[in-house]
Specification:
By secondary structure, the protein is α/β, with parallel strands linked by helices. The chain is built from 21 helices and 22 strands. The chain has three domains: about 140 residues, no CATH class; about 120 residues, Rossmann fold (3-Layer(aba) Sandwich), CATH 3.40.50.720; about 250 residues, Rossmann fold (3-Layer(aba) Sandwich).
């Protein structure tokens, strides 16, 4: 067995790529060249220091002693450099890390040489202050050679790569990082030529030879002068209003727009920042908002707990799984009735879609016995109930399906949670439950009322979270518009004045987790969706971003649809919680004993 392993290991080693002989020789030559440059720097510094020390009386210099001292310096320099691996290609030319390594090596060398001189200065005729005078000059020469080498390398590489001139909007941390990387990355596709910032205190700032040349209002003038082709928005948490303004002005000036990743991503992978610059997305222009998450509060009810998510394979479900996973639950149980969706969820969390591990559970929330059995077996502490039917016009045609899934299915999950003594239950609801006019709205309102009932019955942390449309979710308006554009149009719009609330999937899920931490039993927590967005404006922007000529057809509102949605019912009063983007409202409880399908159908028909 051991011989087989040895053979396989030998074969594996032989298959690994090895540096060619010429490459090793080149690296050795560079190391030797750099070492000789450093010794030459010390030699020049020592000779000049001697001349200065003897006030330019060259006759007083002991050439033999100076030569001996330089020889000792050469030996000590090599020995002192070994712990820092100064000549083993650890550092980039002229980097801060190399400056530190050179400085430490030079200081050690100087200290040792100073001791040598103190012991032998009478015999050698070398002044005791010679090394102290030589040190700053040697450092200046060594660092100067490295800096000039770096400039030469970057200049030669830049000449081989055709970079596009770019204006960077934002001179804060993100802007500084972008300018630094664009300036030093020889393969960067962009060359920063100017900075813009609306902070008057940064009016004369300068970052790596790139000046702040005004505010955003000066964009047209700066773009003409620099002949820039790209505008990079280096504001990690730029809101949608600002980005729409940037996009409109850039379009007028013929500039392509690129945006930076968030600060978290930049800190997590700084070396890749320049390659993460991306074009503006619809998410940026509508719903890109920062979320101030109380990590301690969220982690307090998720970390080390068993968490079950229904509808785990949906757009919201998958993102919830991803965000919950970051808080290190004791177990994450992903439940869905669609095996393909479960595979997508498992791949996102585990990096594989084998579907043969216990974190994926195939079940339908309509099956009360199966759901109860799963809950009793797995004993979850926290449940996020995201499973639902959500397409309004489809449910208008088939209201019984909405009843079976959104109402009875939710009751099944609530009963199972009660039986398993789940401590925290978060029901994912919708803004259509506020003053409902559709089957979808009525079904989700009943789900909220059932959740409130179970909260009162158990006195446990059972709440609902209500929000509007989510950009990029499966079957969402933006996804459908994208398909229509891809097919050449036209885009079918229900009404030219229809508005909706929007947020991104990550933002919605972050706020859902936050709501689970601060909500009180029986409440509906309402997420701040910002200002409602005109759907016609979204359609026009998507057409503009596609670069195609697409018509827009007005087809009229469908049955049950509202012209404008609201997040709070006319009978509710929402109060702001400790989180500025979440408010809460009490929900009227509905006992399961009061459920009556015929009465519900009559109510839906009347709505």
């Amino acid at each position: 067995m051991s011989s087989g392993n040895s053979a396989s290991q030998a074969a594996e080693r032989s298959s690994l790529p090895r540096p060619s002989t010429s490459s090793r020789q080149t690296l050795a030559f560079r190391s030797m060249r750099q070492y000789l440059f450093d010794i030459a720097s010390w030699a020049v510094a020592v000779i000049v220091a001697g001349v200065l020390r003897f006030e330019f009386d060259v006759q007083r210099l002991n050439v033999t002693s100076i030569a001996m001292l330089i020889g000792v310096i050469a030996l000590v320099q090599f020995l002192c450099s070994m712990p820092m691996r100064l000549y083993q290609h650890r550092y980039h030319y002229g980097s801060f890390e190399e400056v530190v390594a050179v400085g430490i090596t030079a200081l050690l060398n100087c200290g040792i040489e100073e001791l040598f001189v103190l012991f032998f200065y009478i015999r050698l005729g070398i002044p005791r202050t010679l090394m102290l005078i030589a040190l700053p000059m040697a450092l200046l020469l060594m660092l100067g050679v490295r800096y000039m080498t770096r400039l030469l390398i970057e200049s030669n590489a830049r000449n081989k790569v055709k970079s596009v001139p770019a204006i960077v909007y934002g001179a804060g941390y993100a802007g500084s990082e972008i300018v630094r990387q664009l300036s030093t990355d020889v393969m960067s596709p962009y060359e920063p030529v100017a900075l813009l910032d609306d902070d008057p205190n940064k009016r004369h700032a300068r970052i790596r030879k790139v000046n702040v040349e005004g505010t955003f209002s000066d964009l047209a003038q700066v773009a003409r002068r620099t002949r820039a082709k790209v505008l990079i928005v280096a504001i990690s948490y730029a809101d949608a209003k600002l980005l729409r303004r940037v996009a409109d002005e850039a379009k007028r000036l013929g500039l392509d727009v690129r945006v930076v990743p968030t600060i978290e991503k930049m800190l997590g992978s700084p070396a890749q920042t320049t390659f993460n610059l991306r074009a503006l997305s619809l998410d940026d222009l509508i719903g890109r908002q920062p979320v101030d998450t109380n990590l301690a509060a969220v982690g307090g009810y998720l970390t080390g707990k068993r968490v079950l998510i229904t509808g785990a394979g949906g757009s919201i479900g998958i993102e919830l799984c991803h965000q919950v996973h970051r808080f290190n639950p004791a177990e994450l149980i992903m439940l869905d009735r669609d095996e393909t969706n479960l595979q997508a969820a498992q791949y996102r969390i585990k990096g594989h879609g084998l579907l043969n591990t216990p974190e994926v559970v195939l079940a339908d929330i309509r099956d009360a016995e199966a759901i109860k059995e799963i809950f009793l077996q797995r004993s979850p502490d926290v449940v996020f109930h995201a499973a639902a039917l959500k397409h309004l016009p489809m449910l208008q045609q088939y209201p019984a399906e909405a009843w079976k899934t959104n109402v009875i299915g939710t009751l099944n999950v609530l009963n199972a949670a009660d039986a398993a003594q789940v401590t925290t239950f978060v029901n994912i609801s919708t803004d259509k439950a506020a003053d409902p006019t559709s089957v979808l709205g009525y079904s989700k309102l009943f789900a909220e009322k059932l959740t409130a009932y179970m909260a009162r019955k158990t006195d446990r942390h059972y709440i609902s979270v209500r929000f509007g449309n989510v950009l990029g979710s499966r079957g969402s308006m933006s996804t459908l518009f994208a398909l229509m554009i891809e097919d050449g149009g036209p885009i079918q719009l229900t009404h030219p004045e229809v508005t909706r609330y929007f947020m991104s999937i990550p933002e919605a899920c972050q706020l859902v987790l936050q709501a689970g931490a601060i909500g009180k039993p029986g409440e509906a927590l309402i997420l701040d969706m910002g200002e409602p967005v005109l759907i016609l404006d979204i359609a026009k922007r998507m057409i503009e971003m596609s670069g195609k000529k697409i018509d827009i057809d007005i087809v009229g509102l469908r049955e049950g649809e509202k012209l404008h949605e609201q997040l709070v019912s006319s009978l509710e009063s929402a109060e702001v919680t400790e989180h500025k983007k979440i408010s809460h409202s009490r929900v009227e409880a509905l006992s399961p004993d009061e459920l009556d399908f015929d009465a519900w159908m009559a109510q839906v028909s009347g709505g």
